[in-house]
């Protein structure tokens, strides 16, 4: 079967899986269908690797960065489905079905967004992710979940509309019929002819709009609230694969416009947005009292690093892609573990957390290992990506940005270290620590594997992996 047939088959099977899960309220059957869907997704990802750089149906291309992020999605879909089975096992058959239907829809929509080769198709799939995530955020049916869900739907819809207006604005000003398709190839051609002022406006709209997904300042609040109330496995998805969707949308437009005269402007905007994201996240992390909210601001901080890396350019391009990959595995593992810590300690509140090493040694070990990875302390592979960002700043002579970035990263490191070490070793403030629920230590295996991959990259970057990233950024200005 050719690429078009496989792609259509993937979407058809995904639709059938979601529909069957919604119709059949038997939990065992839902689990079986979901596992089959995961297997189909992994197989589809492998197919994309064997057909790299092919375009099919006119709207999808299996390019390097899309397939790389699709591979991350496949890996995290396996772990997220596994931890989701555990999290929602006590849910009613109806809520169990809704959860897995929305999860299948979310994975399918993100897969389409990664592979789409046009702004219109990206917009459709990104909007689909908003609807799927909304159903997942509201899973626990609390007042806070309802508030976060409506806020997420409203702000994300407005943001995506702003992004689309930016591209349409470019088309209207040029008045070229080729832009009606809004394919990346046609946008690239028209961008070279457009007025630089219009290109700047279009880029700002795109950046602000898709920041709702990537979690950058100034549209970061919606993702932070979503993290706080969503089930931990879904928080892991929102903080990794879904943020990657926002990053990819911004990265593609940046790459298209990088051959024009507005490159310095785009770099300044990205650096400003990244710096403000670092500033806001570091400030809020220093006073964070909710464990999941703390990780949500950590995600914002890491997306700020990615934005700065793109804006700095040079070796920063490589660092941005590497950081996206490593952050995905690290943050997913941390959210899975925080979900387990809630079962053990019965709370997400920092002051009520503590003595975790005695209550659940396997989970505490995972938390400490995740702390090393997310703070970029060797042997974390994120140390490599962050060092490359700082090296790029030195190469450009941006010493002020270097000092500011290093200072804010120190604040972030201090905030994470003090809070995680309190959870692991200290007694809860004002109350006695006790075991709330027993957790099987085997549930930590997935997190050890994810963190092991991040640590492996610190020591060994396979030539194929390095060449893949270099191929992704090879067309960008040096």
Task: Offer a few descriptive terms.
478 residues, mainly alpha, two-stranded antiparallel sheet, 76% helix
Commentary on this structure:
This protein is mainly α and 478 residues long. It has a domain at 262-478. 76% of the residues lie in helices and 1% in strands. It contains 20 helices and 2 strands. It has helices spanning 3-23, 27-50, 64-87, 93-115, 119-137, 143-174, 184-191, 196-214, 221-229, 232-238, 241-257, 263-285, 291-312, 315-345, 356-359, 361-374, 382-396, 399-425, 445-459, 463-473, and strands at 55-56, 60-61. It has a two-stranded antiparallel ribbon. Strand 1 and strand 2 form a beta hairpin. Helix 2 packs antiparallel against helix 3. The longest helix has 32 residues, at 143-174. The protein is globular. 55% of the residues are buried. The mean pLDDT is 89.
| Structural Rg | 21 Å
* Distance linking N and C termini: 40 Å
Content of β-strand: under 5%
Number of helices: 20
The total beta strand count reads 2
Report mean pLDDT, rounded to a whole number.
89
Write down the overall geometry.
globular
As a percent range, the share of helical residues equals over 70%
SS-based class: mainly alpha
Low-confidence blocks of residues:
none
Biggest sheet descriptor: 2 strands, antiparallel
Side-by-side strand order of the widest sheet: 1-2
SSE pattern: HHEEHHHHHHHHHHHHHHHHHH
